[in-house]
């Protein structure tokens, strides 16, 4: 009986991992990098008119340090992000140095939103903290610029870190 249970758990895990661990096609990778290059330029220049085209209506920015952030609520309307978040983001000199000198990696993941819909997340990831940079046991960390596909176009919806 126990062997059967273990077998079904392994089978279930394999089925789930095959759903989430899909890779991006070469065409979509090129499109995502092109979108990222435009988005990063508009973030840098604070061109909110053009940036609006590449974002959802709200941005979840974990590194913007909004005053009223809570652990569960860092998601802000785009206009609020433009007023406060862009300045915080642009004042992070280490982040911009990394963006200007390093090549990002693309990470494809997914989650189930609060409506039960499956969402695929396409992240542009930069190594921000090298392992052991912050301490003997620190494993390092990345900054992620997360995009979703909407009507065949990538839209920025989150700026986060791991861990």
Structural commentary:
- The model is unreliable at 1-21 (pLDDT under 50).
- The longest helix is centred in the N-terminal third of the chain and has 20 residues, at 26-45.
- The protein has five helices and six strands, in the order αααββααββββ.
- The chain has 163 residues and is α+β, with helices and mostly antiparallel strands.
- A hairpin with a 2-residue loop joins β5 and β6 (153-162).
- It is globular, with a radius of gyration of 18 Å.
- Strands 2-1-6-5-4-3 form a six-stranded mixed β-sheet.
In short:
Strand 5 and strand 6 form a beta hairpin.
Draw up the topology in text.
Elements: H1 2-20, H2 26-45, H3 48-53, E1 55-61, E2 75-77, H4 78-90, H5 93-101, E3 105-112, E4 118-129, E5 141-150, E6 153-162
Parallel strand pairs: 1-6
Antiparallel strand pairs: 1-2, 3-4, 4-5, 5-6
Query: What would you say the CATH architecture is?
Result: Roll
Order of helices and strands: HHHEEHHEEEE
**What is the global morphology?**
globular
Approximately how much beta-strand content do the residues carry? Answer: 25-35%
Q: What fold name stands as the CATH topology?
A: Nuclear Transport Factor 2, Chain: A
End-to-end distance, in Å?
38 Å
Helix content range: 40-55%
Mean pLDDT: 81
Radius of gyration over C-alpha positions, nearest whole angstrom: 18 Å
**Order of adjacent strands in the largest pleated sheet:** 2-1-6-5-4-3
CATH class: Alpha Beta
Estimate nothing, just give the exact number of structural domains: 1
Q: How many DSSP E strands?
A: 6
């Amino acid at each position: 009986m126990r062997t059967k249970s273990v077998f079904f758990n392994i089978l279930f895990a394999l089925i789930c991992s095959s759903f989430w661990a899909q890779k991006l096609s070469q065409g979509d990778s090129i499109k995502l990098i092109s979108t990222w290059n435009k988005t990063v330029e508009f973030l840098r220049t604070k061109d909110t008119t053009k940036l609006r085209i590449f974002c959802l209506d709200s941005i979840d920015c974990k590194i913007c340090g909004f005053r009223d952030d809570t652990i569960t609520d860092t998601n802000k309307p785009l206009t609020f992000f433009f007023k406060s978040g862009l300045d915080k983001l642009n004042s992070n000199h280490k982040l911009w140095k990394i963006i200007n000198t390093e090549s990002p990696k693309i990470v494809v993941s997914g989650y189930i939103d609060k409506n039960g819909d499956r969402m695929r997340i396409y992240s542009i990831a930069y190594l921000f903290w090298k392992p052991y940079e912050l301490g003997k046991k620190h494993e390092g960390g990345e900054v992620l610029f997360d995009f979703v596909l909407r009507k065949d176009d990538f839209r920025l919806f989150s700026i986060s870190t791991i861990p």
